[in-house]
Amino acid sequence: MADVASLSTGAQALKRNATGPSGPKPRHVLSRRNIFLYGTLIVVALYYLLPLYVMIVTSLKGMPEIRLGNIFSPPVEITFEPWVKAWATACTGLNCDGLSRGFWNSVRITVPSVILSIAIASVNGYALANWRFKGADTFFIILIVGAFIPYQVMIYPIVIILREIGIYGTLTGLVIVHSIFGMPILTLLFRNYFTSMPEELFRAARVDGAGFWGIYLRIMLPMSLPIFVVAIILQVTGIWNDFLFGVVYTRPDTYPMTVQLNNIVNSVQGVKEYNVNMAATILTGLVPLIVYFVSGKLFVRGIAAGAVKG
Amino acid sequence: MAAEIANPSVSIQDLSLNFGAVSVLQTLNLDVANGEFIVLLGPSGCGKSTLLNCIAGLLDISEGRIFIKGKNVTWEEPKDRGIGMVFQSYALYPQMTVERNLSFGLRVAGVPKDEIAKRIARAAEILQIEPLLQRKPLALSGGQRQRVAIGRALVRDVDVFLFDEPLSNLDAKLRSELRVEIKLLHRRLQNTMIYVTHDQIEAMTLADRIAVMKGGVIQQLDAPQTIYNRPVNRFVAGFLGSPAMNFLDGRLEKDGGDWLFVVEDVRIPLATYAFEKEPAPGPAVFGIRPEHVAFNSGTGWPFTATANVEVVEPMGSDTLVWLKLGQQNFTVRVTSERTPKNGDAVSVGFDPMRASLFDAQTGNRL
Q: What interface predicted TM-score (ipTM) does this complex get?
């Protein structure tokens, strides 16, 4: 007791005499570290935003203004005519109904491909993670190896297969191709996510009498929203932006938006309408852009959750 | 081993489990009587949880048969075995309320709604979780979650409860509270319960019989007191008891008609020790629990010795005193009022009747 008493009086004495640092450490807003950090961030942000700025500005100018050559200056007279033209009347090949045709083609390609590939891949991943069937590891390895085979190797064989089945050049064919090529990476994503879920949960559900589909639909699905969001983003942006498969496996009237954009921008007849090209490009990129903006936070969380375990 | 059980609730016959070349369980036999509380106790990796998962049907076995209520369930799905299971990590479905968690199994089985409501009401009343029914598991404390997990087994109205280290994730205070609750639950329900733990206190307090496991083999299956007082081998003796049993390495010798245990210059007469069978002279291990040693209490014991205190470990209710007997460490449990100081000369005494002798080679009880 005596020891404790003298200790506390000692502490009090120390407190009274204190003149040194106390409380939270002060932070200087204009420290060298902050200037360097934020300076770098601002420069990099500008670097990436500048092209977008030029595109938007150009797309709002008329052709006479563009010919003046001041690509950074804001438009003197704002006009939406290039946007309307890009969407509705720009000519590609024989059709002169703008990007709208390609847009609806892309929607008809993307929506079923995303749904189909994610539905199959999530069940694949769930089976591989939880139902350890015989040969599961071999199956998984084969699937992963599939992710490393270059597309170019498979393009022509798939053309033949689609032709033999009789769906070459149709949207159905392209949807199937997209679903197959999304399978390895999506399965990996879902398998890793389901592996990271507590195994006891799965066991409890089995004791409760739920079967393969019961556990998948009632236990696993409701718990895996983040990874589904990631998969949707990956697939929507990937399939929307695809050019190669689109140009190989479809015909002019079923071209996706990206292929049509290429045809508008690269058309060699007449005057190069930079404002229409810029508007068409932004229109095409709008869908992935919106997807990123809406789901950024969920995307990062899901990617982190799916990436932890290999 | 206990006598044959006439009508076992759970019967495991010649069960083996191999993962590839690794043998996890080896021709294991276990009969559990109706309404009995069996604890599977052992260090991690001894196969106790594996055995429980085999009984539940969550792991496919390599050999043998499992009977529950006289029915061969070896190839049955978990849901058809008449078992309910409680997991260490609670394993509650996070997206469902407590009520939905409890009713999940019943809904899967297509039980009528009013029957589900009745069973949930009963389970909630028994476990006192009525106010929690509309909450999600994330909004519950550890103890509450484990109650819900027990409730999920309860509503299934099964014959056999399986517990897989249900208290290991809880803090010490909650653990002792829930331990008592599980004991009361067993008394009220009179179900067969198989309980896996590595905590010897849980095993001692809860079990009708304890099965001590090591390396996929049941070492001893008996009432807690028997296992504590008459361990069949050195592993069981050392695994149960805290502080651990004292082990002295020495020799068995015969002096005239009486057996002696000799540790260096210390001679312990064994006249009161009950041998399993007539022993042979040779190296052996003498084990005695620290609480069976008398401290500074005269010379009225079959064996007494004096020694100097080396270290004193106060544990609150009592104190562990470390001595040297010959050259070997020896601990004595002393009530805290009588705690000696380091270096004090003290006398210790015990009756070898309470000790255990083990073969130095095989570790089996002599």
A: 0.85
